[in-house]
Amino acid sequence: MISLKFLYSITKLLPVAIIPVAVYHAFERSRTVRRKQADLKSKSFTETYWSFTHVTFAAYHIAMQIATERLILRPWKHCDHAEAESLFRYASDPEIGIRCGWMPHRSIEESMNTLDNVFTGDENYAVTLRGADSPIGAIELKKAESGDHAGEFVREAVDAHSLFEGVDAGRLERALAHYDGDRVLGYWIGRPFWGQGMMTEALQAMLRHAFVDLGCNAVWGGHYVENPASGKVMEHCGMQAVCRKDGDYFPLIDQRHDAILRVITKEEWETCRDKTGNPKPAR
Ligand SMILES: CC(C)(COP(=O)(O)OP(=O)(O)OC[C@H]1O[C@@H](n2cnc3c(N)ncnc32)[C@H](O)[C@@H]1OP(=O)(O)O)[C@@H](O)C(=O)NCCC(=O)NCCS
Fold first, then answer.
1. CATH code for the part of the protein at 71-272
2. pTM of the predicted model, to two decimals?
């Protein structure tokens, strides 16, 4: 006969049994995710172009993997020294960070810290070349929140009637009404890869992802006036320049820059893109 005392002592041991099982389960799930990503990568371009991997484990959301003709946009690997080294190689370049509003990385440890504590957004992707896993850049769709920098920037311009000529204030008002939960862009790519159309390719895929998969109403993006290459990338993807703010303050670099804000709404994206996110061919 099992005594009550014995049963009571077993219940006290339950957490000891459950914790290893939970840890093992989490480990297995993360292996499955990595296997799925590896499978996706090994498929042909046509097979993978619009394949996305969604994995949610408890409250932990793992971003998808997005394939373009030359690139794979994949989640960052955290606590990974090779990843940090590759990030440091490009993010230590003063021509990169300053244009994005952050200081160039000074050490691999700093890059590791960025991987673990800054690149934590649900839609922050490492840009990698097909067939080579090392990150050569980054692209992020950051959640827009009312009162944030980009939203305030446009709000002020609408209120001050200082939008660029031809910009429809009503359209911006409507986009601002849905601002919370929409997305603000951020991106960069290592200097050796500039001027080959890669960021335009990445942004086209990300816009499709934003409108089709994430259900955004609009995607916003800003760049310095003295960074026309970034303006061109957004322009190529249909993002219209709506206003300019002179002497905009960027706290992480303690500098002021004249900046331009751009936006594309879902409606505009649908009218100027085919379903793959590429520009519609001229009729
Ligand atoms: C901006 C950046 C992401 C562009 O990436 P990229 O892969 O070189 O971009 P693409 O090749 O797709 O397109 C760049 C376009 O800008 C043009 N361009 C480049 N330098 C230019 C300049 N000084 N003036 C005008 N146009 C310029 C290119 O000719 C190209 O346009 P085209 O296709 O019509 O010829 C890259 O330069 C970068 O990472 N810069 C540093 C970080 C940064 O600025 N991030 C954006 C912050 S808002």
1. 3.40.630.30
2. 0.80
Q: What is the pLDDT of residues 104-161, one digit of tens each?
A: 999 999 999 999 999 999 999 999 999 999 999 999 999 999 889 999 999 999 999 9
Task: Please give the distance, rounded to the nearest whole angstrom, from the Cα atom of residue 57 to the centre of ligand 1.
Answer: 37
**C-alpha 146 to ligand 1 mean position (Å):** 29
| C-alpha 16 to ligand 1 mean position (Å) | 55
Q: Considering only CA atoms, which residue is closest to atom 31 of ligand 1?
A: 232
The ligand 1 atom at the shortest distance from the C-alpha of residue 97 is 42
Query: Domain segments of the chain: what residues?
Result: 71-272
Ligand 1, atom nearest to 231 Cα: 16
Using most ligand atoms within 8 A of CB, pick from 199, 258, 260 the residue to mutate for ligand 1: 199
Q: Where does ligand 1 bind, in terms of residues with CB under 6 Å?
A: 96, 99-100, 187-189, 194-200, 223, 227-230, 232-233
- Asked if residue 265 lies in contact with residue 217, where contact means CB atoms within 8 angstroms, the answer is yes
Q: What is the per-residue pLDDT across 221-280, written as a single tens digit (0 to 9) for each? A: 999 999 999 999 999 999 999 999 999 999 999 999 999 999 999 999 998 876 566 666
- The DSSP bridge pattern shows strands 218-224 and 183-189 to be parallel
